[in-house]
Amino acid sequence: MAKHLARIHGTEEDKVNCPFYFKIGACRHSDRCSRLHHKPAFSPTILIKHLYRHPVRQAELQQAALVQPGGQASEPADPTSLVDREQATEDFLVFYEDLYVELSKFGRIEALHVCDNLGDHMIGHVYCKFHDEEEASDALQVMNGRYYDGRKMEVEFSPVTDFREARCRDYDEDACARGGFCNFLHAKPVPMPLIRSMEEDCDADRIRDREKRKSKEREEKRSRKEHKKRKRDRKERKSSRKRSRSRSRGHDESDDDRSYSQSP
Fold first, then answer.
1. CA-CA distance, 142 to 99, in Å (whole number)?
2. Which H, E and C letters describe 60-123, residue by residue?
3. What is the pLDDT of residues 6-26, one digit of tens each?
4. Which of 60, 94, 139, 157 is spaced 20 to 30 A from 131 at the CA atom?
5. What is the pLDDT of residues 62-89, one digit of tens each?
6. Per-domain residue ranges for the chain?
7. CA 163 to chain centre
């Protein structure tokens, strides 16, 4: 029985645990899902919810804002036709690079994916997998609640550790029939040379920061030693002065005793 439960865990056969939440860390039914969403207490992967401003959604909002209250709406245009793809790609790469540099301060990034999905439960999601759980924990504690581009970041641990199971293979082959409303991860493509370049730059920055911290720790340790030495020297000098005064008083008392005994 235990082997059977372990085999079906996170699959469609599992009637207790939600397979979509297990695979992609998001479910279109949200809290209304009939199956359980086990949120991990620790994970090397963090999820930043709805951070990326998807150009198609932005075009939809702009289109809706143009309709005057009480006025007759014209036939809405396809939002994708309103998107300047070249500008959208440039804005995305700037966003990706900025976020990569910021998150890499907490540790080495193994994967950073931005959702191209349009479903409300996944739009704008950012997944970041670190080398280990401690780095992910540090990132979550610092980034959660911070503001980015006017948005308050909502960060949580994600159960996703293998993005091969989360990604839509048809999307990677440019053949997904469901488009942006697919329930599997549509990771926006990023040029590999850009990722390699950022990895090298961030690794170099972390090495420099580590050397600076070590140098600062050495200076602080040296300063503490010098402070302790000065304190010890002051104590020894004070003790030496006390001994000198004590000996001086002793000599004076012995001289007085001799003078008293020699008097007629």
1. 14
2. HHHHHHCCCCCCCCCCCCCHHHHCCHHHHHHHHHHHHHHHHHHHHHHCCEEEEEEECCCCCCCC
3. 455 555 667 788 988 988 999
4. 94
5. 887 776 565 555 566 777 778 888 999 9
6. 2-56+80-190
7. 18
